[in-house]
Specification:
It is a single chain. The protein is built from six helices and five strands. By secondary structure, it is an alpha+beta fold. It has a five-stranded mixed sheet with strand order 1-2-5-3-4.
Length: 245
């Protein structure tokens, strides 16, 4: 018998499977790439259509930003007989002082108040309207004089809608009564009485009001003379012009 030839083993058959795998992988990435390109085109077309639609409807229309003033402005509601206030905070106190002073001058000319009962000046926080106790309170009392109420109404009605702080002050003469053990209680009670009166007129928001008593510790004149003590006994209505309501 003729001897059989030894069968030769093919060690490169794996290349066929590998080539098939690479071909399938290449086809997969081609399909993915084509799909992504189509999505981009669709997205671009959709974005263009939405932008055009909103433009035709005047939606998201670009407008120039409003100019911001270099100095902050206050829009303050003024009394009925006074032009609407719209001025920089640093000038507002001067404008209000001019107006209040004109009202006081008219009341003095009519004989409704004496010259030294009310005074005004511009302080660190705004316009200060000082009500001296000789015209508004009996000695040692926080009850407003009935004869001063008409004048107080005229004055309060001229106040714009601004934050207001009412401060009570006394001289350095000690006080001790059934109602007020010290000047602290008296000054605080007087400030509260004026604050309640202002709120009672109805056009000032109570949330914009505060009241405090300082006794004899914030004098504006010397307590060594009767004249100085008279100036120190006062209730200050302070229009806080630096604060936006």
């Amino acid at each position: 018998m003729r001897p059989k030839k030894a069968q030769h083993s093919n060690h490169e058959r794996w290349l066929i499977s590998y080539a098939d795998f690479i071909t399938l992988l290449f086809a997969f990435f081609v399909v993915m790439f084509a799909t992504s390109q189509a999505d981009k085109k669709k997205q671009a077309q959709a974005a263009t259509a939405i932008k055009s639609a909103f433009k035709d409807m005047s939606v998201f229309e670009s407008k120039p930003a409003p100019m911001t003033p270099t100095t902050p402005m206050l829009m303050v509601k003024a009394p009925a007989n006074m032009p609407k206030l719209a001025v920089a905070p640093e000038a507002l106190a001067k404008q209000l002082k001019q107006h209040i002073d004109s009202v006081l001058a008219e009341q003095i000319a009519l004989g409704h108040i004496s010259k030294d009962v009310v005074s005004t000046h511009i302080g660190n926080d705004g316009l200060v309207i000082s009500l001296h106790d000789a015209g508004f309170f009996p000695s040692g009392s926080a009850e407003v004089n009935p004869q001063s109420i008409p004048m107080l109404k005229v004055l309060v009605d001229q106040l714009p809608e601004l934050p207001i702080r009412v401060e009570g002050h006394t001289d350095n003469v000690p006080i001790r009564t059934e109602l007020y053990a010290t000047n602290w209680e008296l000054s605080t009670a007087r400030a509260s009485a004026i604050a309640r009166f202002v709120i009672g007129r109805g056009h000032i928001d109570p949330r914009m009001m505060s009241a405090a008593g300082y006794a004899e510790f914030h004098p504006v004149a010397s307590n060594d003379t009767p004249e100085g003590r008279t100036q120190n006994r006062r209730v200050d209505i302070i229009l806080l012009t630096g604060q936006v309501p």
